[in-house]
Amino acid sequence: MTWFPQVVDLRYFEEVSPHFPFFISLNRVDSHFPAHRHDFLECSFVLGGSGVEIINGVSHPMEKGTFTFLLPYQMHELIAHKGTPLELYNCMFALDLLLPFMEQMPLLHKLLLDSPQEMSPFIKLDAQERARFTGLFAQLLNEFQQTSPWRDTFIRVKLMEMLIEFDRTRNQALTHRLAPAAILRTGSTKDDDMWSILLYIHHNYKEELKLHQLAKHFHRKENRLSEEIKRYAGKNFVELLHEIRIRHACALLASTDLHMSDIAVEIGYGSTQTFFRTFKEVKGQSPGVYRKQIGQHQR
Predict the structure, then answer these.
(1) Helices marked H in the chain
(2) By the 8 A CB rule, do 163 and 108 touch?
(3) Domain end point (choices 133, 158, 185)
(4) Domain residues for 290?
(5) Is the pTM above the cut of 0.90?
(6) CA geometry: angle at 150 spanning 147 and 156, to 5°?
(7) Average pLDDT of each block of 10 consecutive residues along the chain (299 residues)?
(8) CA dihedral over 217, 218, 223, 228, signed as positive or negative
């Protein structure tokens, strides 16, 4: 398996197109996969072996049939038990891959942006469910490796199907009081607190969000909060806010015919000039050029 730095994004994977932020691979962990966090979402599915995964200081079992869904910036690591290496799929994608569908699908919006922290990030699948998820991951991997017509649409559809199945199964487990519980807390609540802050930024990026407001809301000192955001997200507050906004802009440019001024307002910028300047700083090209290129790519 490729080693990850502590904070990464999908640009670390050469196979990932900037126009379609998705990656899937089949991997093996022989002993330990170091603690890391990233700015994309990740689904993993264990085919064999046994071990544990630690997410924000909380450990849960990893064994055949375990499906885990990780939100951005959650610190996690994998430990395989001696003599039982973990074999698993890892599927990674940026939030903006599904943004065009979120306004029409409230449950998808809730799953990706409004899931309560107490919701378990993993489920244990029975034999029938394992077979279904094994097929879904195999289809996603096969399609990802192709250049066939409808490839990107097929991947989006299968990804949506997988997330729906996960959410249904997790909710059914809660209904029947069978939700798997984390077995060990290995750290303090500090990671959870920072996740709450990062999640708040993701929820409120359309507002006129300022660092001093964020510090006041979470009862933190502004300088200290700035340092913590940099350490956890790999970028400072302003860079993180711009990146989240520009991601949404990219999704709107790719999936709608909205005017640039409307997109600027939609993602939280007070002026089109600020939007144009920031977009070029982040993406290295103007919004118009990006829209033209993505249109050519989708034909």
Answers:
(1) 99-102, 106-113, 127-144, 151-175, 190-204, 211-217, 222-233, 237-255, 260-266, 272-283, 287-298
(2) yes
(3) 185
(4) 190-298
(5) no
(6) 105
(7) 47 65 94 84 96 88 96 84 97 82 77 69 94 97 93 93 93 64 47 74 86 93 91 86 86 82 92 95 91 68
(8) negative
